[in-house]
Amino acid sequence: DIDGVGQKYHLELVLEDVLDKDSTVNCTAEVLYHLGNNIPPDVQFAIAGELKNAEAADNIFYNRIKSLEKELVAENIPDSRGNVSPEMEPVHLLAWVASGYVIWQNSTENTKFQLAQIKRVKQVKRRDEYLEFDYTILLHEMVSQEIIPWQMTVLWHPQHSVQVTQDSRQPKHA
Amino acid sequence: MRVLVLLAALVAIAAGTETFVGHQVLRIVPTNNEELQTVQELQELEELQLDFWLAPRGLGYPVDIRVPFPSLQPLKAHLEANSISYSIMIEDVQALLDHEQMEMLRSRRQLPFSTNTFDYATYHNLDEIYAFMDLLVAENPNLVSKLEIGRSTENRPLYVLKFSRGGTNRPAVWIDTGIHSREWVTQASGVWFAKKIVLDHESDEGLASVLDKMDIFLEIVTNPDGFAFTHSQNRMWRKTRSKHSGSLCVGVDPNRNWDAGFGGPGASGNPCSDTYHGPYANSEPEVKAIVDFVKSHGNIKAFVSIHSYSQLLLYPYGHTSTPVPDQKELHQISKKAVAALSSLYGTSYKYGSIITTIYQASGGTIDWTYNQGIKYSFTFELRDTGRYGFLLPAKHIVPTAKETWLALKVIMQHTLDHLY
User: Fold this and answer.
1) Alpha-carbon separation of residue B183 from A15, A169, B122, B237, B311 (angstroms)
2) What keywords would UniProt list here (chain B) (predicted)?
């Protein structure tokens, strides 16, 4: 507890590769939640080791999308039964990474967000080397149990990190 | 010709106008000209109302005739008098039509023929689960019965399966799944539990000893309106489908609607919220039905309400941080149940009271059941921890059900060993 500033947490955690449960790496982090909850929490972290190199898979995905004649469009990933087709798996993973940013920016000590589903994704063709996707995702907030639609524009290239250039909370249906 | 007759018959059956009870289809194969002529002449006898499915063509060709019941005796006598042999192809036309109609309905709805051909490793809709229940009861009438404990807002029946070896009002275990409709792995697990009880009730020592002294009640689709809605409109629907005046929003969170700390912190007064507690406790018929059942039964000793996701085993309270008097014992049971669960696939669970382990929640099911004196009140949150969340792939259903069953057996066994 830091007077006048907020609450700081020291964390020791283990990162696990979603695609390879045996591949883990230790991590330490410091999270500072500011008083008033108007500003996203500050996060500092250190990874003890190396993250897996995914260059080959990244390039395959990148080239496949770049060479599509029509922009990629898809809905409901996963579907009602939890299925994700192999072609959509990287699109799903990309959304997951990007939603991490949105979640970080909107987290307080009283929230717990998960990506519930990609409602809709539409590729936006660009002249430059980047891939751009316009996602509408559903975030599940555990404490309120709300399903919150959220729009986010995601930029990516194998040699650059994922960027969320724009995001906005969407109104819920009745 | 034959197809038209059959179709007409089915339409008539559906319209309830014509019946073919006792009608038979006879086959005659004329072997000489006299026989052929006799058969041909039959076509003139209008009063017999014979229906030729295969008309006479020539020697050696079969002649098939549908014969109405009143004409059977006279026709057979006539054929025998003329030494014409015949065989009975169809003993009772109506029986065949009934069976066919049943098959048609079955294949249209893709219903399994038995609980042995039911696919437990896939998600089903409400009709399929309700049909499963009826099959299970029909196959095991000495063990399983189906009770209707009430009706939902949209007038769907609320069914509970009772597993009992006999006796009167024995001490009982209650298990419910699907109170939150989007938590699909729970209803699917409930179906699996039902079949498991039937399969193991004699061969599994632990289960057999439980059923020797206790009954098991299982409500698989605790929120059928919500469940139907997750199939037809919104996969993420959680609440009931009730409409309360003054709001455009629909539904009440059935796990905030119980009379335990009702309306306190940990529930919302906003009808549009996913944790809306409702206008008053037990406003939801789905909740009221269980309340009425529990009160009138009076002898329920363990109550387990199953949710997903988060991989947790929880005991009361959710509405207050005051520990329940039996906290130590419930904590010990949870520890043992979780160990049993994890032993199967290594799935890790956390456990503790609702308020310390997950969040503050008022008006919750097991807070109420505990306050009713049902000491062994637990809530599960099944797989996973967020990767798929509610959209858990079907391949997880059976493993989830299997590991959870081990935990449930620990709870049931402990209840049996500590009956109060």
Assistant:
1) 27, 24, 14, 9, 13
2) Carboxypeptidase, Disulfide bond, Hydrolase, Metal-binding, Metalloprotease, Protease, Secreted, Signal, Zinc, Zymogen
Model pLDDT for residues B169-227, shown as the tens digit of each residue: 999 999 999 999 999 999 999 999 999 999 999 999 999 999 999 999 999 999 999 99
State yes or no: is B103 an active-site residue. Answer: no
Superfamily in which the B112-417 domain is placed by CATH: Zn peptidases (3.40.630.10)
| Structure tokens, A95 | 């959304």
Q: What class is the A1-52 domain? A: alpha beta
C-alpha distances in Å from residue B217, one per residue of A111, A172, B7, B174, B302: 36, 37, 44, 5, 10
Residue in chain B lying closest to A172 (CA): B272
pLDDT digits (tens, 9 = 90+) for A63-79: 999 999 999 999 999 99
Spell out the alpha helix ranges (H) of B61-200: 69-81, 93-109, 126-139, 184-200
In the numeric block, the tokens 């969340």 are attached to: B389
Q: Sketch the domain layout of chain B as residue ranges.
A: 24-91, 112-417
Distance CA A141, CA B313 (A): 20
The domain at B24-91 falls in which architecture?
Answer: 2-Layer Sandwich (3.30)
Rounded-to-integer distance, Cα B172 and Cα B213, Å? 9
Provide the CA A126 distance to its chain's centre, in angstroms.
21
The ranges assigned to domains in chain A are 1-52, 53-173
ipTM of the complex: 0.87
CA distance B144 to B197: 10
Chain B interface test: which of A145, A146, A170, A172 (most B C-beta within 10 Å): A145
Do B317 and B370 contact (CB within 8 A), yes or no?
Answer: yes
Share of chain B above pLDDT 90, in %: 79
Q: Which residue in B has a C-alpha nearest to residue A149's C-alpha? A: B236
Answer yes or no: is pLDDT of B110 > 70.
Answer: no
Question: Matching CATH topology for A1-52 and A53-173?
Answer: yes
Find out whether A131 and A62 touch, Cβ atoms under 8 Å: yes
Of B123, B236, B396, the CB nearest to A147: B236
Cβ distance of A81 and B123 shorter than 8 Å: yes
Q: Nearest Cα to A142, choosing from B229, B381, B370?
A: B381
Class of domain A53-173 (CATH, top level):
alpha beta
Task: Kindly report the number of other CB atoms within 10 A of residue B259's CB atom.
Answer: 16
Q: Which chain B residue has the Cα nearest residue A145?
A: B274
Q: Which of B35, B286, B381, B403 is catalytic?
A: B381
Q: Cβ of A138 and B236 within 8 Å?
A: yes
| CB within 8 Å: A116 and B391 | yes
Could you tell me the two tokens for B60?
Answer: 């050696």
Q: How many CB atoms lie within 10 A of CB A112?
A: 17
**Interfacial B residues in 347-406 facing A (CB < 8 Å):** 358-359, 386-394, 396
- Residue whose token pair is 């529930």: B267
Partner-chain contact A83 B238, CB within 8 Å = no
